[in-house]
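Table S4 entry, SGNH family esterase protein.
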Amino acid sequence: MICLRLWRAAPTERRLASGLVLLLACLVMVLMTGKSDAENLPPLKIVAFGTSLTARGGWQPGLQTRLAACLQRSVKVESVAKSGETSTWALTQLDRVVAEQPDIILIELYANDATLHRFVSLAQSRRNIADILDQLHQRLPRARIILMAMNPFSGLRGLIRPFVGSYISAHQAEALKRGLEFIDYRPDWERLTPDDLAAAIPDGAHPRPEVASKIIVPQLTRHIAGRDCGE
């Protein structure tokens, strides 16, 4: 608008020449302003909330780097996660998540609920995740909450989780009931050959970090950014 007013104020015989100069000046102004605005944005704060698939995941640095490049904005990813814990433990950690004041919360809390020896029933797990989602939404109403289904289990770690799919479905249903987001990485893992999958998840539960990053980071970046950010 400023450029248009300046152009209209110029004498008619000088408008063509002055218009070209003003066009270039305004273009430079827009580019400089855009850069300044991007630089002045606070970091996008993400909290990954979960089990060992987060605590030992190793995919967070890749997400931070790739998403920052995609959004042209600083991104900081923190974790509130502990190996071997369940959604019952997660209910005691909500203050830690809220204290981070995240813009986005990534959640995976079904994996240990589904183990036979931790005695978290499917109904209890569903009540727990519902309570977690409600509390987080109430205390962080502007935060995006994204539930995630991670990698498949195999071997002994698969045998002790015979109904893990039901736990994932229960958590997904509670998310969708509240209009929250859900990402399922399992189809991408299942595209690997059996040999590659075994090499990627040698203990049957915890993927090698470099493979986890290759599977998770591109899809999660696209989902958060709302567009394909390229390689």
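The beta strands are 44-50, 75-81, 104-108, 144-149, 181-184.
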